[in-house]
Amino acid sequence: MTIPAVSKSDEGLYKCTNSEGESPESWITVTDLSLPASLVVSPDRSQFFEYESVSLSCEVQGNSAGWRVVRNPVSGEHSDCGSKWGKQQGSSCIMSLIPSDSGMYWCESGSGEHSNAVNITVHAGAVILEIPALPVTEGDSVTLRCRYEGTPSNLTADFYKDGSLIRTETTGEMTIPAVSKSDEGLYKCTNSEGESPESWITVTDLSLPASLVVSPDRSQFFEYESVSLSCEVQGNSAGWRVVRNPVSGERSDCGSKWGKQQGSSCIMSLIPSDSGVYWCESGSGEHSNAVNITVHAGAVILEIPALPVTEGDSVTLRCRYQRTPSNLTADFYKDGSLIRTETTGEMTIPAVSKSDEGLYKCTNSEGESPESWMTVTGW
């Protein structure tokens, strides 16, 4: 049997039979290097004042039917535009924002495919940093604006990257004429009227100079569990260190107030306030991938990869109870919907595909895990 032009719809479990018997089943994976849809944010900003409006829309390759904007806000559950928030207008979702709208937004199809995800922060204070919500490409010109809600809006401003002052501008604007990977990081601004929230700017490059390795490779941990974080660097590893921006504190390096440096690794005994975003950084400001780690004081976690998995890989998710037996019967949820019940407490995806990307959690008789995002990359 020949498929002259294989497509994503041909992916699946195959077997054959003839007069002499039946073959085993095997999975065929069809690699797609591009996302099927993009979430477009207009205006293209990560930060908004309370009561400002934003339009979110899904740009889909092919048929856009069945695609919708969904979110997982800091203060609530995964839900669709038009359910309890936002107003659907044609292919767009229009919102008048309040602080509880802060969170992650993305597009999703009826079959579970995903777009890129975007983090939006709604600030009740007087100052925001206008910074792109979507990734920028190396070489682009990027302007950051420190905006005061009153008049004049463009006061003299200090701009900070990764906690350090990098520039003071009397116009309230800072332009990077040709952005590079070293400009990627966590930005905020201050002026005479206050301080903005922090937001991450992502710079697209086909290759990262370093990778953050998490061992064990999990996004979720129980309180007091240990984790090792290390930087795998292309070339000279001198000057690279593990840094973090926890939910409950300020950006800092391993060994400062948290973690213990052991050779090239950072060893941590975790508590809930360690939850946050971790990455590797060089002395010149270059960055690795960033990883979100959640430390849970409850009795149940979901063991789910912290690092992206590759299409075709076998992935096992474990709903783990802190006591004995640890592997109770568990329900697994993706993007808020029950997808499977397993008596072993484990759920295996034999050959993961892009449609498996999403927000997962689990429940068992002892409680519910936090939610974590699983990223699936093409080959």
TrEMBL record:
GO cellular component terms given for this protein: external side of plasma membrane
Gene Ontology MF terms: transmembrane signaling receptor activity
Protein name: Ig-like domain-containing protein
Domain Ig-like: 36-121, 125-202, 209-377
Keywords per UniProt: Disulfide bond, Signal
One record GO biological process: immune response
Highest taxon, organism lineage: Eukaryota
SUPFAM superfamilies for this protein: Immunoglobulin (SSF48726)
